[in-house]
């Protein structure tokens, strides 16, 4: 696979891929492009089955599972409790067991910085898209500031593509939109401009665009008007 020059290439590759191994290659290319140590996508389907791909070392994946770290990992708890991206620095790492878990993760090269995006899909599907790296706070803040919108889109694109590989898992009649996505499409469907909607929701137009693009992709819509029409037909919004 050739060197990635921009994130649009990654989105094109995601749209074209037909196998899970290809997703692994794409996520590896993403780490090269962003210049971060790791990127990981993990999802739990409606039946409770777990799947993942990414760049964490295999010995860390095995240790995480054998030690049942999922029970104490604050990233997991933080993502289950939030609809918004989770910066690891804002989590509670103070309990002793959590500090030991963090020490173990750092020893395995996971990185002292992390950014995880929770995704809620149809029929109870839940996923997390994460990037992590070892760097100081200022460099991390700059990276997240530069790529925040793109990371949100990539998380949902990875999720949509992964669901395609699970026959019978994806039901377009059970698409789940976040409260913000519903609000955005509803107000737009009522004829308000993007500036008016952003003001009504007390968010920036940049953030509003992220919600619209996320909803559009979940709905498989070609544009915003198409997304509003589909959301209305599925009963997700009322105009």
Automatic annotation (TrEMBL):
Residues 170-235 form the HTH luxR-type domain. GO terms for biological process: regulation of DNA-templated transcription. It comes from Tritonibacter litoralis. InterPro entries: Sig_transdc_resp-reg_C-effctor (IPR016032), TF_LuxR_autoind-bd_dom (IPR005143), TF_LuxR_autoind-bd_dom_sf (IPR036693), Tscrpt_reg_LuxR_C (IPR000792), WH-like_DNA-bd_sf (IPR036388). The keyword DNA-binding applies. The keyword Transcription regulation applies. GO terms for molecular function: DNA binding. Signal peptide: none annotated. Keywords: DNA-binding, Transcription, Transcription regulation. This is LuxR family transcriptional regulator. Pfam families: Autoind_bind, GerE.
